[in-house]
Amino acid sequence: MITGCTPGGIGHSLALEFHSHGYRVFATARSPSTISSLAALGIETLALELHDPQTVKSLQSQILSLTRGRGLDILINNAGRNNTMPALDMDMDEVQKTFDVNVFGLMRMCQVFGPMIVQTKGIIVMIGSVAAVTPYVFGSSYNASKAAVHAYSDTLRLVSDFVADSKNAGIAVLRLSGNAGA
Ligand SMILES: NC(=O)c1ccc[n+]([C@@H]2O[C@H](COP(=O)([O-])OP(=O)(O)OC[C@H]3O[C@@H](n4cnc5c(N)ncnc54)[C@H](OP(=O)(O)O)[C@@H]3O)[C@@H](O)[C@H]2O)c1
Prior knowledge:
Blueprint: H1 10-20, E1 26-29, H2 36-40, E2 44-47, H3 53-66, E3 74-77, H4 92-120, E4 123-127, H5 140-156, E5 172-176
Parallel strand pairs: 1-2, 3-4, 4-5
The structure holds NADP nicotinamide-adenine-dinucleotide phosphate.
């Protein structure tokens, strides 16, 4: 399952690539009509608004049903939003939305879909950013949100933080920086 698959972005390309290699792909978008071109190829498209816990729960029900409880092999937390504004001028509602999507939404996805990943001893992939370690100017809130993603991902990799019974977890957590070569 790949989040944030609207055309032109990384998620869309990943969906096409996995599909071309024969994987069954669940691609999400805020509005599935925006990814009808993926549906036309046989990719299963589903709705997800990351700042809305209800749509995450609804997505969980749909995936449980579509997979008949067999679990998920790969979860790619790709969806994210930018926020570029000098720190003193930032609209705090925009900062909140950025963290709601990039950080809290991503954590919720891991929590809700984690059991399905543990079931297959699968992989959770986080699309972080080089901005977490090499900040760009006017990107303080985005850079901070991605730094949080990096710290969260690196902690999950200590699998014992992810699930109390760590012996049975056996999952992998992969963090990508989201930039070519980074
Ligand atoms: N492009 C880069 O150079 C770069 C560099 C480093 C990291 N990244 C990271 O890579 C990931 C993909 O970025 P991209 O460049 O492909 O950007 P993008 O084309 O804007 O893709 C972001 C995706 O996230 C979705 N999204 C935004 N807010 C959402 C919400 N509230 N709920 C659910 N989905 C939401 C977007 O949906 P809508 O289209 O409906 O808004 C879109 O599908 C992001 O996490 C980004 O931070 C990108």
